Amino acid sequence: MSTSASASPSGHRAYEDSVRLDTGGVVTGLREILGAQLVAYLGRVSNTRSVREWADGSRAPGADVVQRLRTSYYVAGILIERESAKVVQAWFQGMNPELDDQSPATLLRTEPLDAVGPKVIAAARSFAAGG
User: Fold this and answer.
1) Secondary structure (DSSP) of 3-38
2) What's the superkingdom here (predicted)?
3) CA-to-CA distance for 120 and 44, rounded, in angstroms?
C-alpha cells in the first residue's frame, strides 16, 4: 500500500487501490499492514496458509470474502496514511466507541458488509482526522 506524500487525507488513493488491485494485491497489502493472522480472521479462515495462497494466487477466496478484504484494505489505507501499522492493527482489533464499542475487525468479519462497511469507513475517517 502506498503511503506517498500525495495521498489524500480522505482516502481516495486507498479506495482506488482497493478497487483496482487484484485479490492477491489486496491480500498482500493487508498482510503488510495488519499481519497474516488478522487478515485470516477478516477472511473467515482459521489459518494463515490460506492468506499466503490468496496472496500468491494459488487459491481464491469466495466473492463475499473478497469484498470484505477490499473494504478492509480501504479502511487500512485510510488509517495508514497517518498512523503506523501497529496503531492500525490496534484500531482494527480494539473496541471502538463509534461502532457501539465493537471492534472493526469483528464487524467486518461477521456483519452484512453493506450495513457495516460504511460505518467502519466513517469511523476510520474520523480516527484519521483526529476525532
Assistant:
1) --TT--TT-HHHHHHHHHS-HHHHHHHHHHHH-HHH
2) Bacteria
3) 18
